[in-house]
Fold:
Amino acid sequence: MRYLEDFSEGQVFELGEETIREQEILDFARRFDAQPFHVDPEAAKRSIYGGLIASGWHTASFFMGLLVRGLLHDVASMGAGGIDEMRWQKPVRPGDTLRGRLTVLATRRSTKHSDRGLLTVLGELFNQKDERVLMIRWSAMIARRS
Structure:
């Protein structure tokens, strides 16, 4: 298990990669973001995107899945209070292979709670062309070693 003390500024964690499938894009969007360019391949062709793209929220969820499987299962995570910044930088399309990376920007002990601290982190998601499709920055609460 990793605790706050096990992280340092500048550390980089590769989170693995997965391919996003058209059916996953359609299923997510139909439930949570039913804009035509996310749910209707024909309408998407006529859009500014020229084809079906994943919802940005799906892209962020995809990153979270890679983060949990690639790192957080082995971290004494206590959640987060929110997101400071998030940018969808390129459309994600069916068949894209997405790779996640997390960089530690800063660490600090909590002044209110001696059992925890904060990691300020930068999450990134890249497609198979090594183009950054998602950037997300937030502070995560991490338990301190007893």
In short: The two ends are 12 Å apart (CA to CA). The CA atoms of residues 42 and 111 lie 54 Å apart. Residues 56-70 form the longest helix (15 residues).
